[in-house]
Amino acid sequence: MKAAGALVAAVALVVTATPAQAANGTVGERETVCANDLYVRTAPNDGPWMGTLYRGQTFLVKGPKIGNYVYGFAYGHINANGWVADGWFC
Description:
Elements: H1 2-17, E1 30-32, E2 37-41, E3 49-54, E4 58-66, E5 69-74, E6 80-85
Antiparallel strand pairs: 1-4, 2-3, 4-5, 5-6
């Protein structure tokens, strides 16, 4: 019985120790932000800042993608269309 308990604890440790991998957004999908903070901008390529999305908030990827940025709708306290750096979604 102790061996089974140790095995369960070891498996739980492996599962919780695995970090979440950030991914690019998919056009048409409402993605969850994996970054601690993700700046929403009025234009791609480091355009003017308009707000910040935080881990767990969502962004509807509408497209297009320009360079490392993607256009879409930032939900939460921003509630507006804007551009974010791609590659920070769960």
